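Long-time lurker. I teach an intro course on protein structure, and each term I like to show students one example going from raw sequence to a predicted 3D structure in token notation. This year I'd like something fresh instead of my usual example. Would anyone be willing to generate the tokens for the chain below so I can use it in lecture? Attribution to the forum is fine with me.
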Amino acid sequence: MFLLKPTNFSYFSRKALPWLGVICFICFLVGIFLALFFSPEDYKQGEIVRIMYLHVPSAWLSLGVYGLIALLSFIFLVWNNSIASVLAHAAAPAGTVFSAICLITGSIWGKGTWGTWWVWDARLTSMLILFFLYIGYLSLWSAFDNEERAKKSAAVFAIFSAINIPIVKFSVNLWSTLHQPASILRKGGVAIEGSLLLPLITMFIFCTTFFLVVWILYALHLINLYKIKREISVRY
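-- Reply from a regular --
Happy to contribute to a lecture. Here you go:
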């Protein structure tokens, strides 16, 4: 809650931005090198398996960002914290892009391994639904002339639609699907070899820090707009 004040968020986010930018750039260079040269090709899938290093982090970020939006929306509704609403709004475009990247890279990977661009199985369908939920959330922000009504409508939508997050996560366990089960976040422990895990984690850190940089920049922009609107409403 400490950071959910405009002055505190602006101060600490501006301090963090240069460090996040450096970490993002380093992890990008290291991650690309590890993914292309350190990681071995798969004995069945061949070189196309390397798309995993973009596909999997994008999938994780898609779920994580929507969960963040739902949490911030809950804080906004319960404590009437307007900055939480602004931060939720700022996170949505990046989450939409990550979900789109996940779907596109997944289709390319599927074509190379399954022989088809798309199948209507549980994991792919629930991820497609998540993409449309992002679109729906963003659409609600521009669907109303009244800004407060738009905030509350989008917040309620985000909270209730977050039920799709565990559906995406556990879809491979609950239903029959072509998609492989979890290899890292699973009951039996990590089931992925170190030469694959290291570039995967590095690329995940890159995607996470990239999201944080974009999120902070857009949030600062929205906070400034919010301040300008408040000043105008007070004057007139």
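Some talking points for your students: Residues 6-235 form one domain. Helices lie at 6-38, 52-79, 82-113, 122-141, 147-161, 164-174, 194-235.
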